[in-house]
Amino acid sequence: MVHALLHAVVSLPAAGVYGFTIAWLCAESAGLPLPDELVLLFLGFLAHRGTVSLPTLVLCAVGGAALGAAFSYTVGRRLGPVVLDRTRLGRRLSRDQLASAQQRMARRGAVAVFVSRVLPIARNIASYAAGIAQVPPRAFYPAMLLGSLVWCTAVLTAGDVLGADYRVVLNRIGTPLLIATAVAVVAGLVAGAVWWRSRRRRGPVPVPVSPPKE
């Protein structure tokens, strides 16, 4: 079914691909069990072909992911544990799964939110768990946006770099290893950029000057 859908996406104009990207990432981040990694790699391949712009694709993917995550966070925050009884997602999950995620969110806050955005399975329930755990919005939203940016950039860039070979790589090393490698590379670049910027803000380290000898 997914492959047939992607085959149809190939024939869409750039605007249609962008709209599909927003809708797919929004639905996946809101809790629907959709194969996010495969679709992002495929969209990156379309950027490699020149069908769409990679930077615009990243913005659309992050925007869609943010919308879906914000929705599920709000639902979890307002309904609390009742989300298990009132949503289809809740009926698919065991209480132990959500309770475990909720405990991680309560203990680690923004760090747990960020990590959950770059893990393939955790994204489906992480925002609900953050809302139920009452993670403050000032901690949730920046961490969620940063994690979504790292994830979407990593996987889309991997698809763009690999081109049509992304299928071969997936078959040989598997999706988890490919995604983990891409995320690690992008996370390293982000950390390097943050370090370089903080060093520039501090300015050059003053060199101690010895007092003149009398």
Please give a structural write-up:
- By secondary structure, the chain is mostly helical.
- The protein has one domain.
- It contains 12 helices and no strands.
- The mean pLDDT is 76.
Secondary structure topology:
Blueprint: H1 2-10, H2 14-29, H3 36-49, H4 54-79, H5 83-86, H6 88-92, H7 95-108, H8 110-117, H9 123-132, H10 137-162, H11 166-173, H12 175-202
State the domain count: 1
Can you give the mean pLDDT? Answer: 76
Shape: globular
Structural class: mainly alpha
Sketch the topology as an H/E string, one letter per element. Answer: HHHHHHHHHHHH
Uncertain residue ranges = none
CA-CA gap between termini: 86 Å
Number of strands: 0
Secondary structure tally, helices: 12
Helix content: over 70%
Instruction: Name the beta content range.
Output: under 5%
Largest sheet: none
Essential attributes:
214 residues, mainly alpha
Short description, anyone?
By secondary structure, the chain is an all-alpha fold.
